[in-house]
Every structure is written in structure tokens, then in C-alpha cells.
Amino acid sequence: SYQNIKISTPKPGVGLITLNRPKALNALSSPLFVELNDALSKFDKDASIGAMVITGSERAFAAGADIKEMQSLTFSAAYTTDFIAPWSHLSTSITKPVLSAVNGYALGGGCELAMMADILYCSRTAVFGQPEIKLGTIPGAGGSQRLTAAIGKARAMELVLTGENFSGAQAGEWGLAAKVFETAEECVEGALKTAEKIATYSRVAVKAGKEVVNKSQDLGVREGVEFERRVFHALFGSRDQKIGMAAFAEKKKPEWSHE
Ligand code: CAA
């Protein structure tokens, strides 16, 4: 029943969300985000799903926030409605791993959405950028923070202040993308394969793995290592730790309980 996205489960344990506003190059309108957040929450709650992939089309992952929707927005309306705050749903409330498979344009909010994912894959010719400066504004959905964390201040500052684009190949060289593919098809297939692999592991351990890596973005190394150790300790209380280690000792394949 979605108008702006499509959802499917193309591989065991994998939920695929395809942004689908082709006429607007998948510009991220408010109605699109309502649907995206709904789909993410549904997959997150679905016990049969272990990981998710967000992708767009070969031409555009997403060409940014919807400029036509923002054009006449006032400060007071943006402030009182906390405009684009719902975009944080993916990074604050979704506990299962999310991969982004980026082909074509990932500009402004599109680049920001791609970077909210836990793992970013792209094709070599993908076009990333934070072009908001050209519109008389700045990134508003975490771009200045996540891009800087991923590729360092020197490059991020240059990109945010010039609005210049960068390629998927560069995203790989700079460490923003975990993998870079030759074609759009290979990129989506690669993301689905990785999601499928993650979905074969214990849901409890995967959730903990995502949580501890994400904590590294907010905590100093010492606090982060202490946090990691406490979560590591906690996993000795899971059934899956016993199942996983017993299976290793018995040279068998683990049958996870997800408990
Ligand atoms: N919002 C609304 N509509 C958009 C859009 C956007 N971000 N990007 C593209 N579209 C629309 C175009 O208006 C056009 O619609 P019409 O056919 O009705 O005119 C359609 O999509 C196709 O786009 P183009 O004709 O422009 O296609 P192109 O191939 O010539 O150019 C492009 C492609 C370089 C991506 C160009 O569309 C473009 O520059 N888009 C805007 C990119 C941008 O500035 N993004 C940042 C938005 S601000 C933001 O995201 C704020 C934030 O941080 C949250």
C-alpha cells in the first residue's frame, strides 16, 4: 500500500526497501519518510528478518530532501514542527543492521540517508555530495557530522563548503563505502548477500555488535572499550553464546535460538 517505496524479502531473512519516486529522482519528501520509517519498523519487529537493505534506482539513490516541499518553509514552521526530525528514526530506533546500496545520485539528504545505514555499499559511478550550500543552506540530516566522522575534517569541510560531488570510487578510497561495485546490479546483489549472511547469525549477537560499533561514534576509546566489555559479559547470559561455542567444540553448525 506504499506510494513512495517498494518493499520485498528477496532472500531469507532480508528485507529490501526500494525508494520509488522516479519522477523526482527519489527526492525525500515527508510522505516518503513516513513510509520508509513504517517499513523499517515493520522489518525491525519481524522475527523472520535479520537485516535490511535500502536502495533506490540505477539513476538515483535519492537526490536529496524535497526542495519543492522546503522552498516556502519558514523558520518558525521548521522549528515548531521539528522539520526532518523523523529522519532520525533509522539511526535512533532501528536495532537490526541496515545496509544502503547506493547507485546514481546520493545528494544532500540522499547522501545523509545513505550514511545513516550501518554499512554503505555503492557502485563506482555513484554520485555523492552535500550540495546544500548551492541552495543557500547547509546539510540538515547529519551530513556535516557523519561525513566528517567517515572521511575526516579536511575533505568534509571542503565538500560541505564547495558543494562539489564525489564519486562512488572516491567514497571507497576514503572509507565511506565498505565495498564498491562495477555495476548497479552488482551493488544491490552485494548488499543483499551481506544482509543474508548477517541474517544467518544470532540476532542477539548481531544486535550487540551493531550497538557496540555505533557507541564508538559517541564515546571516547576508554569508555567505549568498557561499554564493549560489559556487553560482551552480558552475552554470556544468552543461549546463543552457549549454542555457538558448543557447536564450535563439537565441529557442528550452530542452530541459533536467537535468545
Ligand atoms: N527535490 C525535489 N525535486 C527534485 C530534487 C529534489 N532534491 N532533485 C531532483 N528533483 C526533480 C527535478 O525537479 C525534476 O523534476 P521536473 O521533471 O518536475 O522538473 C526531476 O526530479 C528530474 O531532475 P532533473 O531534471 O534536475 O534531472 P537532471 O538529470 O538534469 O539532474 C540532479 C539531476 C543533478 C540530481 C538535479 O536534479 C539536482 O541537482 N537535484 C537537486 C540536488 C540537491 O540539491 N539536493 C540537496 C537537497 S537539500 C537537502 O537535502 C537538505 C538536507 O540536508 C536535509
UniProtKB/TrEMBL annotation:
Keyword Lyase: yes
Keyword Aminoacyl-tRNA synthetase on entry: no
Domain of life assignment: Eukaryota
GO terms under biological process: fatty acid beta-oxidation
GO CC entries: mitochondrion
Pathway(s) annotated for this protein in UniProt: Mycotoxin biosynthesis
Molecular function GO labels: enoyl-CoA hydratase activity
EC numbers, comma separated: 4.2.1.17
Cited Pfam families: ECH_1
PROSITE patterns: ENOYL_COA_HYDRATASE
Keywords carried by this UniProt record: Fatty acid metabolism, Lipid metabolism, Lyase, Virulence
Family named by the database record: Belongs to the enoyl-CoA hydratase/isomerase family.
Protein name: Probable enoyl-CoA hydratase, mitochondrial
